[in-house]
Design goal:
With 135 residues, the chain is mainly α. The chain is built from three helices and no strands. Helix content is 63%, strand content 0%. Helix 1 runs antiparallel to helix 2 and helix 2 packs antiparallel against helix 3. The chain is elongated and about 70 Å long. The N and C termini lie far apart (66 Å).
Length: 135
């Protein structure tokens, strides 16, 4: 098994570009940045409305802050995939030895996303319970 060869056999007539594979990292950075900015604006508006306007700081706010921190951890892992091999790269343009770091970053990202789910769902459930059963 050649670790410096392509991770997958290329189709007939295609020559693997292992040194500088074509990618769409610019598109990925643009989309990820736009999503991060949108999430930050929503997080800030929610915090402002709940804490400043309503003068309430309840358990939901703590859970949202924890979820926001997990969101940035997952975003960091997602941006780390730009280094190896990049976004929208065919498998035959990736060296076999570069698959392991890519899978490791993908695993870290999925674990951070799992951690993101618990506080965000708990916050939603706490808000729904507070609305459904007022004191």
């Amino acid at each position: 098994m050649d670790l410096d060869g392509p991770a997958l056999a290329p189709p007939e007539g295609v020559i693997p570009q292992l040194n500088n594979p074509p990618n769409q990292n610019g598109v990925a950075i643009g989309v990820l940045s736009a999503c991060a900015v949108f999430a930050t604006i929503c997080f800030s508006l929610r915090g402002y409305a709940r804490v400043v306007l309503l003068k309430k700081f309840q358990i939901e706010e703590v859970l949202v802050i924890i979820a926001y921190g997990c969101f940035w951890g997952a975003t960091y892992c997602t941006l780390a995939l730009i280094e190896t091999p990049g976004y929208f790269v065919h498998t035959w343009n990736v060296r076999l030895r570069d698959v392991i770091p890519t899978q490791y970053v993908s695993f870290q990202s999925s674990m951070r996303r799992k951690k993101l789910t618990a506080p965000s769902m708990s916050s939603s459930l706490a808000s729904a319970t507070r609305l459904s059963f007022p004191p």
